[in-house]
Design goal:
Layout: H1 3-14, H2 19-38, H3 40-45, H4 48-53, E1 57-66, E2 72-83, E3 89-95, H5 101-117, E4 123-129, H6 138-152, E5 161-164, H7 171-185, H8 205-223, E6 232-235, H9 240-251, E7 255-256, E8 258-260, E9 264-267, H10 274-283, H11 291-294, E10 299-302, E11 313-315, H12 325-333, E12 338-340, H13 349-357, E13 361-363, H14 365-368, H15 371-385, H16 391-415, H17 422-440
Parallel strand pairs: 3-4, 3-5, 6-7, 6-11, 11-12, 12-13
Antiparallel strand pairs: 1-2, 2-4, 8-9, 9-10
Helix pairs in contact: 1-2, 2-5, 2-17, 5-17, 6-7, 8-9, 8-15, 8-16, 12-13, 15-16, 16-17
This protein binds NADPH dihydro-nicotinamide-adenine-dinucleotide phosphate (NDP) and (2Z)-2-iminopentanedioic acid.
């Protein structure tokens, strides 16, 4: 059996009931097959792939908190410190009832390659909890965040592990967690990113993932002879990534016509009303069904459906495995030319293959959504030098990083004979720096 197949089999056997982690590992290792085969003896001797797929450290802890009625709840907290070869662990904290160790491991594994692609000195990690922030009062959110940080603080720090936001963790949660860290440690340091602007946050971090997604998408299309202006875009999600993807797409002259949350989806043929979307989601924290109150001509449907709309470009920005092969068939039938992932692993392996076989340009999340973590790394730099850069400065660095990422993965795909396969390109380009650093640092 080849080394790649052996390690995939081990991962499946050693990590039962973690299908998302298996999926992420399979995608990466399949892409690396050509590189691994060229170095098989040396990699095997160093157990390089085994070290790559086993996190350096996995923390699982109890998070008790008291609700507004005095009832105590117990959630599970996680932090997986996956790989620190190229820098301190870096990656978000997801708060969602679906969170379990396998989900955090898949996200942490992806983060290793994504962070490497940014070109910045950040290792990979991820964390979170099965806590559901929906419908909770501000005080309940604070109680949870303080309890979560009361355990997590032992394992993180500005030079060791720097968490940030992800699904369910935005500026409010980061604020409560930062306050508790500072209180317990008595240290004022950039231990989290995505902070508020009044206490060490970076301008453009809020916008960064969505904006970065569009910068990369625009560059990728341009290199394939396509102008993004005038294109109709189907977007899923209605959170941080989706909102700022829609904003930047509109600034580029494209027309996003859909968005979605976990209860339903909107089709607005005239283009999404961004001010309405921000008010519903960022101010009221309400359901998307309210969108019709702002735009009576738009359609609202319960359930899932954004990929059934005729669109030139699809940007999945909600969650993992939200675009399956049936969705891919609809996109292709409707003439979709590109899919760029704003979320982490939103497209199933089968759907990815189907899209690629049918000539759809496809950029995986670890490249396309890297603008968020890249700007987090810029926030770390600003915290270290105790200065704040202007919006324009951060935004122009972000733009440069995203354009660079595209060219790096495009070049890696070409170098190994997979021209136009941006999945293979991203995985190889991300892997090269990590493996170089791991090899230089010996068996650790
Ligand atoms: P948010 O919590 O801000 O928004 C998530 C959105 O997806 C919400 O509209 C949510 O709806 C919707 N959603 C639909 N189904 C699900 C589901 N099953 N689980 C979770 N959410 C669902 O998160 P972000 O926008 O920050 O994150 C979206 C994706 O982008 C995730 O995959 C995340 O890992 C990835 N990402 C985020 C980055 C960041 O900087 N924030 C950086 C890089 C990647 P509802 O409100 O009804 O739950
Ligand atoms: O998936 C991701 O890259 C994020 N949630 C952002 C991580 C970060 O550290 O900014």
């Amino acid at each position: 059996m080849s080394y790649v197949d052996e390690v995939i089999a081990q991962v499946v056997e050693k990590n039962p009931a973690q299908p998302e982690f298996h999926q992420a590992v399979k995608e990466v290792l399949e892409s690396l097959r050509v590189v691994v085969e060229a170095n098989e003896e040396a990699y095997r001797k160093d157990a390089l792939l085994e070290r790559l797929v086993n996190p350096e450290r996995q923390l699982v802890f109890r998070v008790p908190w008291v609700d507004d009625k005095g009832q105590v709840h117990v959630n599970t907290g996680y932090r997986v410190q996956f790989n620190s070869a190229i820098g301190p662990y870096k990656g978000g904290l997801r708060l969602h009832p679906s969170v379990n160790l396998g989900i955090i491991k898949f996200l942490g594994f992806e983060q290793v390659f994504k962070n490497s692609l940014t070109g910045l000195p950040i290792g990979g990690g991820k964390g979170g909890s099965d806590f559901d922030p929906k419908g909770k009062s501000d005080r309940e959110i604070m109680a949870f965040c303080q309890s979560f940080m009361t355990e997590l603080y032992k394992y993180i720090g500005a030079d060791t592990d720097v968490p940030a936001g992800d699904i369910g963790t935005g500026a409010r949660e980061i604020g409560y967690m930062f306050g508790q860290y500072k209180r317990i440690r008595g240290v004022y340091e950039g231990v989290l990113t995505g902070k508020g602007l009044s206490y060490g946050g970076s301008l453009a971090r809020t916008e960064a993932t969505g904006y970065g997604l569009l910068y990369l998408t625009q560059e990728m299309l341009k290199c394939n002879g396509i102008d993004i202006a005038g294109k109709v875009i189907a977007v899923s999600g209605a959170g941080n990534v989706a909102i700022y993807a829609i904003e930047k797409a509109q600034q580029m002259g494209a027309k996003p016509v859909t968005c979605s949350d976990s209860t339903g989806w909107v089709y607005d043929p005239d283009g999404i009303d961004l001010a309405a979307l921000k008010e519903i989601k960022e101010v009221k924290r309400a359901r998307l069904s309210e969108y019709k109150n702002y735009r009576p001509n738009a359609e609202y449907h319960e359930g899932k459906g954004v990929w059934s709309v005729k669109a030139d470009i699809a940007l999945p920005c909600a969650t993992q495995n939200e675009l399956d092969v049936k969705d891919a068939e609809m996109l292709v039938a409707n003439g979709c030319m590109a899919v760029c992932e704003g979320a982490n692993m939103p497209t199933t392996l089968e759907a990815t293959e189907y899209l690629q076989k049918n000539g759809v340009l496809f950029v995986p999340g670890k490249a396309a959504n890297a603008g968020g973590v890249a700007t987090s790394a810029l926030e770390m730099s600003q915290n270290s030098e105790r200065l704040s850069w202007t919006f324009e400065e951060v935004d122009s660095k972000l733009q440069g990083i995203m354009v660079n990422i595209f060219h790096n993965l495009d070049a890696a795909a070409k170098k190994y004979g997979f021209e136009g396969n941006y999945v293979v390109g991203a995985n190889i380009a991300g892997f090269e720096k990590v493996v170089d650093a791991m090899t230089a640092q010996g068996i650790v």
